[in-house]
Amino acid sequence: MGMPQIDCMPIKKESALTSLLQSIALQEAALAHILNAEGEKIQRVVCEAKCVDDLLNVNESVTNTIQAVSTLEEMLKDKAIAVIDELSGRVC
Predict the structure, then answer these.
(1) How many alpha carbons lie under 13 Å from residue 49 in its C-beta half-sphere?
(2) Domains in the chain: boundaries
(3) How far, in Å, CA of 41 to CA of 49, rounded?
(4) What superkingdom does the record give (predicted)?
(5) Cα(7)–Cα(18) distance, rounded to whole angstroms?
(6) Mind listing the pLDDT tens digit for each residue in 4-30?
(7) Helices (H) and strands (E) in the chain, counts
């Protein structure tokens, strides 16, 4: 099995940058769904927990997820700023 072949089609710079912004928006929406699911997880465990350890375990899990999402958010912010700067002609 060899390397996949990807045909390079010409694309204008503005179209590429717009596509990047759209991809950022989709990633943001996905992260919002993840955070919503974590909130639902907390609500479920608060109602159904049989012991404090259940709450602590979910708390640790949710904390880890939020930290990971925060890291991704920071990267997406930097990516969005770079794309917006490029679109507006402000390249550093």
Answers:
(1) 14
(2) 25-88
(3) 11
(4) Bacteria
(5) 20
(6) 888 888 889 999 999 999 999 999 999
(7) 2, 0
CA–CA dist 91, 84 (Å, integer): 9
Residue 63 · residue 72 · CB < 8 Å = no
Among the listed residues 28, 37, 32, the one whose alpha carbon sits nearest the alpha carbon of residue 61: 37
Q: Which two tokens stand for residue 2?
A: 């060899």
Query: What type of residue is 78?
Result: D
CA separation for the pair 16, 7 (Å, rounded): 16
Q: Which residues contact 46 (CB under 8 A, 6 or more apart)?
A: 55
Q: Is 74 helix (H, G, I), strand (E, B) or coil?
A: helix
Hunting for tokens 């679109």 — which residue is that?
87
Hey, is 45 helix, strand or coil? Answer: helix
pTM of the model: 0.82
